[in-house]
Write a structure and sequence with these properties.
Two copies of one chain form a homodimer.
Chain A lengths: L1 E5 L4 H13 L3 E5 L7 H6 L7 E4 L5 E2 L1 H13 L12 H35 L11 H24 L10 H14 L10 H11 L5 H4 L18
Parallel strand pairs in A: 1-2
Antiparallel strand pairs in A: 1-3, 3-4
Helix pairs in contact in A: 1-3, 1-6, 4-5, 4-6, 5-7
Chain lengths: 230, 230
């Protein structure tokens, strides 16, 4: 049995939920609010970050990339053609670069700001440092996201999937991070048609359904969020 | 033939140099100054970050973790007992968590500030945004490093090597990032004896020698830097 400590608006947590769903692996989802700095959680992951996974009471597996590699090492081979890991070392490196790009760079420059300012600040108590949304940071994110959509469109337009001819972890990482700001209606879908068509394909996969029922306290989803034809 | 785009004071670049040296793989080192945002380099890695590796004119492999995995996939098996990757998935996850901890968290909270303020600002032209060192950031790094040394000491005191019974990529990542601030005399070696003894062991390895001759423009190394008995 797998336990996943997650938050519905942590992009890296969403990524692992998508990976588990694509693999057909069920998990016990435990909601964790990192800003609470819960002692038992910090003992699992001293960095205090999400996601964290445990299997059968074994040691905690901390962070999106270590979990990705663990799941691939323990389940990948059995998935055959549906394996999310490319076959050769160069293609794997490109997949890993893109996972880092979306969960690291995209989240740091775009979705991290938007989710923190528009969702987490509503959820966090004042004692955890919550204040009014910072409109300056929201403007920065809205400028940055347009550059990122162009790059996503470039990738989607020159390859079948983001890292090559097959669906890989890179697509799930990109979709996870985009889905957090699609909830807020903050994805400029007009920037690039390749990006929009790629997202339509991935959003219509059965694995994606679990994300579409996520709700943030006090912030309903944008109308586009659960719409497959946006 | 391997080409490595690196900077002598990029912790992640130092990590890959240590990995290559431990594996006995020679590489053509190409100095890259990321703040120049050189166009040919951005075509290799749109994120503009180091390190980037190429093998035999193949596609660029971008980032410390993707390079680690590539090198292990292509050379690890042949190294037998000297392989830097643990044998089972749980232990691999712990190694990967620690690589992320040192190259990510430690660098973001400690060495990134110190290296940028004390070395890179001397090297960067004014046009790249160079200003005087920020003493506030240096103070923050000096406070943070003491917590990190305690955690390093806890790991080194409870295991033979940082991730378990064998030398792994985690030790090389930790040593790489520490070495950048040891150059500046900024490691508080009095905090924890386990941490100091662990670093003495790793610093005396032949692979480490390549780092000890690195020099920063206008900033000579602290006396402790090349001293194996500090």
């Amino acid at each position: 049995m797998i336990t996943l400590y997650h938050h519905p608006f942590s992009a890296s947590s969403r990524f692992i939920r998508l990976v588990l769903a694509e693999m057909g692996v069920s998990a016990d989802l435990q909601l964790e609010r990192p800003y609470e700095r819960r002692r038992a959680f910090l003992l699992l992951n001293p960095a205090g970050t999400l996601p964290v996974m445990e299997e059968n009471g074994g040691p905690p597996i901390c962070g999106a990339s270590p979990i990705l590699e663990y799941l691939d090492e323990t389940r990948g081979y059995g998935l055959g053609d549906r394996r999310l890991m490319p076959d050769n070392p160069e293609a794997r490196a490109e997949m890993r670069r893109l996972v880092d790009w979306f969960l690291g760079k995209f989240d740091a420059e775009v979705s991290g700001y938007l989710v923190h300012e528009k969702i987490m600040k509503l959820e966090m108590p004042r004692s955890a440092g919550s204040t009014e949304p910072d409109s300056g940071l929201i403007r920065v994110a809205r400028a940055n996201v347009r550059h990122h959509m162009k790059y996503l469109g470039y990738l989607a337009g020159s390859r079948d999937w983001l890292a090559g001819p097959r669906l890989t972890y890179a697509d799930l990482a990109a979709a996870a991070v985009l889905s957090t700001i699609d909830y807020l209606g903050e994805v400029p879908w007009d920037v690039d048609d390749h990006a929009r068509h790629w997202y339509q394909r991935i959003k219509s996969r059965p694995a994606f359904r679990t994300l579409l029922t996520d709700r943030a306290a006090g912030m309903p989803p944008a109308p586009v969020y659960a719409n497959l034809d946006f």
